[in-house]
């Protein structure tokens, strides 16, 4: 504004002339301040001409004016009297340009204090303090400019025309959405079928175990560190490791995963994943997820996925979950095929046992031949045979890891060999050696014993020796291996007994005529009848061939249980009768009960392995004397 420029130039000229002529203020301060103020006045005028001054800039200009006034008054020694004059620029800026007085007041008050101390004033005196407080009070009490906002109604013309989509447009949108949904489903189906085809190809390549091949294919397809496939160990409700591919924690390789009864799939997965997390290496926090493998709606195993990256494991779960039902069928077929192979292998082993026993010069040689034969067929980490020598046991041969696990077992009447002998030479089966009170946990960990079987070599009640079989992983001595071991040990017992016989009497399963002749020559003893009361019902439900196959298995197992002075015959009626020569009543009854329990413990299935046969065996004991035959005792086992 021109008025402001004139006022500022007059003030600048007055101060300059006074400074040059009268030397007031003292020195060069007067004319220097005047010239500087005049130059700033012209700058403010130019700023106004450009229309760049707003309320904020006006406030800073007012503060500069206050500084000039305070400097001049302090230099003349009049700041104590006329310090209030610095309010004039502030009040002008507030009224003219709507500047914020409350914001300017502290700055203006500061000019009074600073100039009183540095430009010839008396310092911070009482008048200066009063001027300062007054400036602050005025700044706070000054009314600020009000901004009034008024609403203005603006008429907007709205078109009343309503656009209606045509039926063709609606059909096109519906078709597009349907096509989009179908493509998404097709992509998911393609991924599922592609992975399913890869699993099928892996399971049927014939070069390696189907389950191991599927584990490797899932690992390669998902780019994970490791994959493990577990299968169900039915009687104990646990999942045991069947195949491992890649890098999997060592404890997980050797451990089983427990599952409960009556749990939903989500509960089973939660329990499995918690067990996997507990079995991880503490120094390597690998991420683990689990998926349940089902066949016909029933859990038959699980798939465990491992990787250091949680996102990779989660993505693998999303990609693999759609094929779990299909994978369940493949695993079931693989287990079924393995069971068929096991049966053929068991027959091969039994034939091999019969072959290698011919010509053995001693019991030790006989046992060594048999153990070496089965050690090459049954996959175990330790297999050993011992001969009983009084209260001691002498090792005959060992295949695999070498340890004397008998020394670390506990029985009802004490530990080790003496406790086993006093307890009656029992069979010991420990599926999980790390969680069983019958074996020392520290010894199991030291010798890497995850599962254990101890099978006695018996001749009637007499223990000739025993066989120990162990695996590193829990559940390794499973039902299939256990059945094969029992059959082989029973054959071994028979082979050892036959070595001492003169073969002047018939052995094995006899014809009725042979059996009658043996009984007539054998003298007093006991008959044991093994009856199958539900045989006809099973034959009607599953067919006669299924019953015949089961009867052959029972015949073989019963023959292997006979003592050295015994014989047996399968009668035309379909049951069995055994003859025990020279046995006491208690010994005959004990043998009958134990044999019936063994036969009932066999898992009898149809030839295709799909159905379990509900055949129950009952044993009846009757004493026999050539002079006075009679039936005096009957019991059911």
Describe this entry's structure for a reader.
This protein has 637 residues and is of the alpha+beta class. It has four domains: 2-141, no CATH class; 201-336, GAF domain (Beta-Lactamase, 2-Layer Sandwich), CATH 3.30.450; 357-499, Beta-Lactamase; 509-624, Reverse transcriptase/Diguanylate cyclase domain (Alpha-Beta Plaits, 2-Layer Sandwich). 51% of the residues lie in helices and 17% in strands. A hairpin with a 5-residue loop joins strand 15 and strand 16 (576-581). Helix 2 packs antiparallel against helix 3, helix 3 (55-76) packs antiparallel against helix 5 and helix 3 packs parallel to helix 6. It is elongated.
Write the layout of secondary structure elements.
Blueprint: H1 2-21, H2 29-49, H3 55-76, H4 79-82, H5 87-97, H6 101-118, H7 126-141, H8 167-203, H9 210-222, E1 226-233, E2 238-246, H10 250-254, E3 257-258, H11 265-278, E4 287-295, E5 298-307, H12 310-320, H13 324-356, H14 363-375, E6 382-389, E7 392-400, E8 410-411, E9 414-415, H15 416-423, E10 428-430, H16 441-446, E11 451-459, E12 462-471, H17 479-499, E13 509-510, H18 512-522, E14 525-531, H19 535-542, H20 544-561, E15 566-570, E16 576-581, H21 585-601, E17 618-624
Parallel strand pairs: 13-15
Antiparallel strand pairs: 1-2, 1-5, 2-3, 4-5, 6-7, 6-12, 8-9, 10-11, 11-12, 14-16, 14-17, 15-16
Helix pairs in contact: 1-2, 2-3, 3-5, 3-6, 5-6, 6-7, 8-9, 8-13, 13-14, 13-17, 14-17, 19-20
């Amino acid at each position: 504004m021109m008025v402001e420029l004139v006022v500022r130039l007059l003030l600048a000229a007055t101060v300059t002339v006074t400074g040059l002529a009268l030397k007031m203020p003292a020195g060069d301060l007067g004319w220097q301040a005047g010239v500087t103020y005049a130059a700033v006045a012209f700058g403010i005028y130019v700023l106004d001409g450009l229309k760049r001054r707003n309320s904020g800039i006006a406030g800073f200009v007012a503060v500069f004016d206050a500084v000039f006034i305070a400097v001049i008054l302090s230099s003349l020694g009049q700041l104590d009297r006329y310090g209030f004059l610095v309010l004039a620029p502030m009040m002008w800026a507030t009224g003219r340009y709507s500047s914020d007085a409350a914001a300017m007041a502290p700055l203006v008050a500061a000019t009074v204090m600073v100039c009183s101390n540095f430009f010839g004033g008396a310092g911070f005196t009482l008048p200066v303090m009063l001027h300062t407080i007054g400036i602050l009070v005025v700044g706070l009490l000054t009314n600020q400019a009000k901004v009034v906002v008024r609403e203005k109604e603006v008429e907007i013309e709205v078109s009343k025309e309503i656009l209606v989509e045509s039926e063709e447009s609606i059909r096109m949108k519906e078709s597009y959405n349907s096509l989009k949904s179908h493509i998404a489903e097709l992509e998911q189906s393609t991924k599922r079928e592609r992975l399913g085809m890869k699993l099928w190809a892996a399971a049927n390549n014939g070069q390696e175990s189907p389950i191991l091949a599927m584990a490797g294919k899932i690992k390669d397809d998902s780019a994970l560190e490791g994959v493990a496939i577990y299968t169900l160990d039915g009687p104990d409700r646990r999942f045991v490791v069947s195949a491992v591919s890649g890098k999997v924690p060592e404890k997980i390789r050797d451990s089983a995963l427990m599952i409960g009864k009556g749990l939903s799939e989500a509960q089973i997965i939660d329990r499995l994943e918690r067990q996997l997390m507990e079995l991880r290496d503490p120094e390597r926090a690998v991420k683990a997820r689990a998926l349940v493998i089902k066949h016909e709606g029933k859990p038959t195993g699980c798939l465990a996925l491992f990787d250091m990256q949680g996102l990779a494991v989660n993505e693998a779960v999303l990609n693999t979950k759609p094929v779990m039902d299909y994978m369940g069928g493949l695993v079931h077929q693989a287990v079924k095929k393995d069971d068929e192979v096991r049966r053929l292998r068991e027959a091969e082993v039994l034939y091999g046992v019969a072959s290698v026993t011919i010509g053995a010069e001693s019991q030790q040689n006989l046992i060594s031949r048999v153990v070496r034969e089965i050690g090459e067929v049954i996959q175990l980490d330790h297999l050993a045979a011992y001969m009983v020598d009084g209260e001691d046991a002498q090792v005959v041969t060992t295949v695999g890891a070498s340890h004397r696990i008998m020394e670390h077992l506990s029985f009802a009447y004490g530990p080790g060999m003496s406790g086993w002998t006093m307890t009656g030479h029992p069979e010991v089966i420990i599926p999980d050696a790390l969680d069983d009170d019958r074996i020392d946990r520290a010894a199991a960990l030291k010798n890497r014993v995850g599962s254990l079987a101890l099978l006695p070599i018996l001749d009637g009640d007499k223990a000739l020796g025993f066989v120990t079989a162990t695996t590193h992983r829990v559940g390794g001595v499973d039902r299939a291996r256990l059945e094969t071991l029992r059959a082989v040990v029973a054959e071994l017992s028979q082979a050892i007994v036959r070595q001492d016989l003169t073969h002047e009497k018939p052995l094995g399963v006899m014809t009725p005529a042979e059996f009658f002749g043996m009984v007539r020559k054998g003298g007093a003893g006991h008959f044991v009848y093994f009856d199958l009361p539900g045989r006809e019902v099973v034959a009607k439900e599953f067919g006669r061939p299924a019953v015949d196959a089961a009867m052959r298995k029972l015949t073989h197992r019963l023959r292997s249980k006979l003592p050295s002075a015994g014989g047996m015959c399968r009668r035309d009626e379909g049951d069995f009768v055994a003859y025990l020569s020279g046995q006491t009543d208690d010994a005959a009854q004990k043998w009958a009960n134990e044999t019936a329990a063994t036969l009932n413990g066999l898992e009898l299935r149809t030839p295709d392995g799909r159905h379990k046969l509900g055949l129950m065996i009952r044993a009846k004991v009757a004493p026999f004397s050539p002079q006075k035959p009679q039936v005096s005792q009957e019991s059911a086992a």
